[in-house]
Amino acid sequence: MDFIKNLFKSKETGPPQRIRLTAENIEQWPSFDKLLKEDKIRFDGTGRLRYKHGAPVGDLVLTRTKKDGTPIYKESATEWFDPESQKAKEFIWP
Fold first, then answer.
1. Phi-psi category of 83—alpha, beta or left, where left has phi over 0 and alpha has psi -120 to 50?
2. Contact 70/64 with Cβ under 8 angstroms?
3. Which helix (H) or strand (E) holds 74?
């Protein structure tokens, strides 16, 4: 996560509260990059990262900062839907 520290060296600025994964920054998130390489997630026609059943990968939300200043992020599940749901069955890839 050194790239985040480099982007936000000033303590006043701090790390971003939310991060949306894109083709440009996914390599900085090894767990998501691995899912992409394993074809468990992929980009849709609009550039949004989605799980295979269509639910978007949630934004990464800052949950805490370690004592050494490293930010800890967790995936937001606000837009997620179950793979067996009606929404997943009706989903059309953009």
1. alpha
2. no
3. strand 71-75
pTM above 0.90, yes or no: no
Cα(28)–Cα(51) distance, integer angstroms: 19
Going by C-alpha positions, the residue among 46, 19, 21, 18 that lies closest to residue 36 is 21
* pLDDT by residue, tens only, the chain of 94 residues: 566 656 555 455 789 999 999 999 999 999 999 999 999 999 999 999 999 999 999 999 999 999 999 999 999 988 889 999 999 999 988 8
Q: Which residues pair with 50 in a beta bridge?
A: 42, 56
Residue labelled with tokens 């480099």: 6
Question: Which are the contacts of 6, defined by CB distance < 8 A and separation ≥ 6?
Answer: none
Amino acid, res. 23: A
Phi, psi of 60 (to 5 degrees): -90, 125
